[in-house]
Amino acid sequence: MLHPPPIRRLLRYAGLVILSWVALSWFIVLVLRFVPPWTSAMMMERQLDALIHGEKDFHLQHHWVPWSRVSPWVPMAMVAGEDQKFPFHHGFDFDSIQNAIDAADDGKRLRGASTISQQTAKNLFLWNGRSFARKGLEAYFTVLLEITWPKRRILEVYMNIAQLGDGIYGVGAASDAFFRTSPAQLGPAQAARLAAVLPNPDRFRVDHPSSYVMERSHWIEQQMDQLGGPAYLQGTQAPRDTERSQRH
Fold first, then answer.
1. How confident is the model at residue 242 (pLDDT cuts 50, 70, 90)?
2. How many CA atoms are closer than 13 Å to the CA of 116, on its beta-carbon side?
3. How far lies 173's CA from each of 109, 125, 140, 164, in Å?
4. Residue 243's pLDDT is what?
5. How far is Cα 43 from Cα 52, in angstroms, rounded to an integer?
6. What's the whole-model pTM score?
7. What is the dihedral of CA 211, 217, 220, 221, to 10 degrees?
8. Which of 4, 69, 81, 161 could form a disulfide with 195 if both were Cys (CB 3.0 to 4.6 A apart)?
9. CA distance 9 to 14
10. How far apart are CA 51 and CA 55, in angstroms?
């Protein structure tokens, strides 16, 4: 009996591994469309880091809050501050990516071009870092999220797992820690303050905001107003010209 060449068997096994990976990862994404994630890769990474470095006082704060119990200003502020094209793109903002590349070529400060979909994929499934492997996996999970979840689900998960302070993840924990109120009671200014620290929550603080955080908060409030407020996320208004409203 003839046996297939080793290279053919190797390719067959590799194909099975890849198909199994795709099936398993897609199944997890499908489940999380309906089931709130109890943690995220970023939360687990932070907990492990605290354990390794002996941070005995570290306590991770996080609890899930459904969309219906969050002020509409919170997701609006995150979109206004992080990804104004979120309702209309399919996971990637190629214009922002090109602008970031052009800025880097001109020797300007490197700026992020990740969409909320990409950030959700990274926070939920991946680790910190800038390797090509991580970026490739980020793109893969971004595509899975976009074809499996509605936009509102992506934004709901994002605002529940985004880091908003040291050990503080999600709008539920952040509203308790910083404003002593429920997420449903947050107003535009408070929502903008939360969104203002998202570029670097390890450096920027909601409770002791720097002049930059306050300036960015005011800019986010202005953007929310120009975009039409929470109705912008309900598909009730035509998209505005966002070219003049690039990230501050």
1. very low
2. 30
3. 32, 20, 29, 9
4. 37
5. 14
6. 0.86
7. -120
8. 81
9. 8
10. 6
Q: How many CB atoms lie within 10 A of CB 106?
A: 7
Per-residue model confidence (pLDDT) at position 236:
30
- Compute φ and ψ for 113, nearest 5 degrees: -130, 15
Among 172, 196, 193, smallest CA distance to 184 is for 172
How many residues belong to the chain?
248
211-227 vs 188-196: helix crossing angle, rounded to 10: 120
Q: Which residue has the tokens 């449903």?
A: 184
What is the number of alpha carbons within 13 Å of residue 242 lying toward its C-beta? 23
SS3 content of the chain, % helix, strand, coil (to 5): 60, 0, 35
Lowest mean pLDDT among 76-90, 116-130, 225-239: 225-239
Give me 15's structure tokens. 């194909």
Q: Region 8-17: what's the mean pLDDT?
A: 86
H helical segments located in 33-165: 41-52, 73-82, 94-105, 116-125, 132-148, 151-161
CATH class given for the domain over 37-240: mainly alpha
